[in-house]
Design brief:
This protein is of the alpha+beta class. It is 19% helix and 27% strand. The longest helix has 13 residues.
Length: 226
C-alpha cells in the first residue's frame, strides 16, 4: 500500500532530544552507547521497506535471538490477526528465528516479513554495539520517528482514519471522523497509526504503549540524578 508520510524526525526515548534519523544514530552511540558494567548489545535501525519515514532504533543483548526481535516488532508495529512472520535475506533466503544477534556483524542488512497475504516488510540494519544495564524488556526502544500527520481529504482538518479502498490507483485517502461518517465509510476505515502496517488487514495500532512521553523522560532523568 502506498503511504504518504514525509521524512520525519524522531525522539530519543532516553533523553527526549528530537533529531533526524542519521543524527539520532550518532546521538545514541555517543551519549547513550556505553553503560559501564552492562551487557553488550546490538544496535539496530529498523525501517519500513516502502516508506522509510517509519523508523526505530533499538538495542538487544547479543545473546538474544531473532525470536525476541520478532515479538517486539509485532507489539510495536505489526500484530493484527496472529499472522506468520519470517526474517530473510534479500533473495528471500529465510533466517532461522533462533539465530542470535551476535551472529550479525556491523553493517549487515536483512528483512522481516509479517503476514504472507498483505505483507508488511521492514529493513533491519546492524548499526554497531551498545552496552546497557539489565532491563526488564529484552528489546529496548531507543528512538522512534514522530507520528506522521495527515489531513482529511474532504475538509483539510486533521485526519483520524485511512480509507482502505483506493479511490485513484494506489492512493488511499484519509478522513476525519465527521467526514468519514458523511461518506458512510465506517466499514472500510482503519485508524491512522505510527506504523508501516497502517491500513493493512485489520491493523488497529500497537499492542503495548510505545508513545513518546516527554514527562516520563524528565522524571526518569530526575530519578537518575537522585
Amino acid at each position: 500500500m502506498a503511504k504518504m508520510a514525509k521524512d520525519l524526525t524522531g525522539n530519543c526515548y532516553l533523553c527526549g532530544v528530537n533529531l533526524n534519523k542519521v543524527a539520532m544514530k550518532n546521538h545514541i552511540l555517543k551519549v547513550h552507547g556505553e553503560d559501564k558494567g552492562g551487557k553488550d548489545c546490538c544496535l539496530l535501525k529498523i525501517e519500513g521497506v516502502y516508506d522509510k519515514s517509519y523508523w526505530l532504533y533499538v538495542d538487544i543483548p547479543l545473546n538474544k535471538s531473532l525470536e525476541d526481535l520478532d515479538d517486539f516488532l509485532r507489539r510495536i508495529w505489526l500484530e493484527c490477526c496472529g499472522h506468520m512472520s519470517m526474517f530473510c535475506r534479500p533473495r528471500y533466503d529465510e533466517i532461522d528465528m533462533s539465530s542470535k544477534l551476535k551472529s550479525f556483524p556491523q553493517g549487515d542488512k536483512f528483512f522481516h516479513h509479517y503476514d504472507f497475504g498483505t505483507t508488511t516488510e521492514t529493513l533491519i540494519t546492524v548499526m554497531g554495539n551498545t552496552v546497557r544495564k539489565n532491563k526488564r524488556d529484552t528489546v529496548r526502544l531507543l528512538a522512534r520517528n514522530t507520528p506522521p500527520v495527515f489531513k482529511c481529504k474532504t475538509c483539510g482538518e486533521l485526519a483520524e482514519f485511512i480509507y482502505t479502498e483506493p479511490d485513484d490507483g494506489y492512493v488511499f485517502p484519509f478522513y476525519c471522523e465527521e467526514c468519514a461518517k458523511k461518506e458512510e465509510y465506517d466499514g472500510m476505515l482503519l485508524p491512522i497509526t505510527n506504523s508501516p502496517r497502517m491500513g493493512e488487514c485489520g491493523y488497529g495500532g500497537e499492542m503495548d504503549t510505545f508513545t513518546f512521553d516527554p514527562v516520563s523522560i524528565v522524571q526518569k532523568e530526575k530519578n537518575e540524578r537522585g
